[in-house]
Design a protein that fits this description.
By secondary structure, the chain is an alpha/beta fold. It contains six helices and six strands, in the order αβαβαβαββαβα. Helix content is 33%, strand content 14%. α5 (157-164) links the parallel β5 (142-147) and β6.
Length: 204
């Protein structure tokens, strides 16, 4: 009920105040949007972010040794299996054990690994999900997001939730600027760009 709302605090304000990561829209200037290329680019970005966070931790001894992870939203269990197999290849994550699948068929072990993904000892570098993550799930070390499932033009909830998975800062309270790189299907990117009308300033 709008009458009960005392104040509004927008995503744009949260970004400006440094409370969340700055979303960065990622795309190729040549317009290439095929899934394999997007996933390879996402893995390259993840490696760059890993190096940047390693450098930050080296200069900040008391910083938690948590590693950045890639978050991918697939369209089905079969699609998630295909994406996971691709990410396990050498040109991508390169290790199947570092790719976590979260679907309606996930084992208790997989769910335990998900709960532990923020731990410094977690081996997980990529999470592939089919919208099976519980409401409110967001971890501070999601730094690259690829939304590969289709979103209806009428619904903002699912793409909004997808983006929200990676907004929490890894090192909140510092003056270090943090970003979450975002790429995905045309519908997902249209949603992300539409948020700019609400005062959110994305980088490209």
């Amino acid at each position: 009920n709008e009458a009960k709302v005392k104040s509004h605090y927008t995503l744009g304000q949260a970004i400006a105040d440094g409370y969340v990561k700055v979303p960065v829209i990622v795309y190729r200037k040549d317009g290439t949007k095929d899934e394999r290329t997007q996933l390879r680019d996402a893995c390259s970005l993840l490696h760059v972010k890993e190096a940047a966070y390693d450098a930050y931790r080296a200069a900040t001894p008391d910083a938690d040794p948590v590693k950045p992870v890639l978050f991918v939203v697939a369209s089905s269990i079969e699609h998630a299996d295909e994406v996971g197999a691709l990410l396990a290849q050498p040109d991508f994550i390169g290790d199947g054990a570092a790719v976590l699948h979260i679907t309606s068929q996930s084992s208790d072990e997989a769910l335990a690994a998900l709960a532990d993904v923020e731990s410094a000892t977690s081996p997980i570098r990529a999470i592939v999900s089919v919208n099976m993550l519980k409401e409110g799930w967001d971890v501070r070390n999601v730094t690259v997001i690829v939304g590969l499932r289709e979103y209806s033009a009428e619904s903002k909830i699912l793409p909004e939730q997808t983006l929200g998975r990676g907004l929490r800062r890894m090192y909140f309270g510092t003056d270090t600027r943090e970003t979450v790189s975002v790429m995905g299907t045309p519908a997902f990117m249209e949603f992300v760009e539409s948020i700019q009308t609400e005062g959110v300033s994305f980088e490209h």
